[in-house]
Design a protein that fits this description.
Number of helices: 3
Radius of gyration: 15 Å
Helix content: 25-40%
Number of strands: 2
Largest sheet: 2 strands, parallel
Strand order of the largest sheet: 1-2
Length: 110
């Protein structure tokens, strides 16, 4: 559900209204099925969407790691999960990724 420019799957753009509606509807259904104790939303847009649809579930927003946010993201995730501080390293740029190397990770804190 990552919005991108046509033909450029590793680009980034804001969701349009229809995409946001579909995403929030899917998120509502996922929350109803998984019944998480909390939601960790990566990025301000994700936190706003989760807050709109998850009235009874605490939403913790963390900085998105792109555009220079990696250090803050790692610190926030370490704090949320009670982990030792993560070492920061250089993240690969989008141009270095290949579709076969991509994976989607979903975590539910149940």
């Amino acid at each position: 559900m990552h919005p991108h420019d046509n033909g450029k799957p590793f680009s980034n753009r804001p969701h349009n209204g229809k995409e946001r509606q579909v995403g929030e509807s899917a998120l509502e259904q996922l929350i109803a099925l998984a019944r998480p104790r909390r939601i960790v939303a990566i990025g301000a847009d994700a936190a706003a969407a989760a807050s709109r649809v998850a009235a009874d579930v605490p939403v913790f927003g963390v900085r998105h790691p792109s555009y220079g946010g990696q250090t803050q993201f790692l610190r926030q995730i370490s704090d949320l999960y009670g982990l030792p501080p993560a070492k920061t390293g250089r993240m690969a740029s989008d141009s270095q990724h290949r579709p076969e190397q991509q994976r989607l990770e979903l975590e539910f804190t149940l």
